[in-house]
Amino acid sequence: MDGWEWDATLFAGAAPYYGRGRLPYAPGLAQTLAGVLAPDGRGRLLDVGCGPGTLALLLAPLFGEVVGVDPDPEMIAEARRQAAEHKVAHRTRWLRARAEELPPRLGLFDVAVFAQSFHWMDRELVAATTRDLLRPGGALVHVSDVKTGSRGVDGLPHPAVPYAAIDELVRHYLGPVRRAGQGVLTRGTPSGEREILTRAGFSGPRRHVVPGGQALVRTEDDVVAWVFSMSFSAPHLFGPRREEFEAALRELLRQASPRGRFSERGPGTDVFVWRTGPGPRP
């Protein structure tokens, strides 16, 4: 990524805001994956770059064991807390580590998922490592928001979230080039997953789109949490001006919606399923 290197501050301070701020996956994602993967409730799931466990916890009822891996200690702590709250702690394990450091001692898995995390990694290395951790016929699942389609709020009761104005405010405080940890992303995050996974020995993919479009109501606090949950506007990036920035952000949001409510439509979810080769379904 044009000289950018990962560092431990990428999502520093973002974990407490993640669950509230991030938009939910499309309804029916777990059911779609259950239909595609046909788990028997005894298999093992590896969530690489699990964050606070959002997807891992959603899928935990489908597997005998779920292992979440993330390098951020606050994300791992939040995942553990959420697992206990959802009463699935007995079937989850959480490991603080980079994806590039996945140890063979983790054993073999039936499914590995990457939920909007693969682009932060040494993708060639991680693809090969993950391939070695999957059973024959196992699946690598890449999950992301659908980037196309209209998400207008016509007919909904509240104003839209003023994303363009928020972006401008962030640039005013942090500069014109997108921040990421201690570095910047001059060209954004990379693409080309298809070529990388094919070279690593995966076949496919099969694409499944889970439709979104559900009407959501977002509060001022929800939108502030969304901002602080993002790598390009994580709390630590603002340094001593963090409180000043948050005050300016809240003022911007109150001007956009004096009642402190925003309407939004949930994004669809893109699911790409890759296989390790001929063999039984997991």
Automatic annotation (TrEMBL):
EC number annotated for this UniProt entry: 2.1.-.-
Segments traversing the membrane: none
UniProt keywords, alphabetically: Methyltransferase, Transferase
GO MF assignments: methyltransferase activity
Biological processes annotated in GO: methylation
Domain spans labelled Methyltransferase: 46-138
Region feature Disordered, mapped onto this chain: 259-282
InterPro entries: Diverse_substrate_MTase (IPR051052), Methyltransf_25 (IPR041698), SAM-dependent_MTases_sf (IPR029063)
Top EC class of this enzyme: transferase
Name of this protein: Class I SAM-dependent methyltransferase
Source organism of this protein record: Streptomyces huasconensis
Lineage of source species: Bacteria, Bacillati, Actinomycetota, Actinomycetes, Kitasatosporales
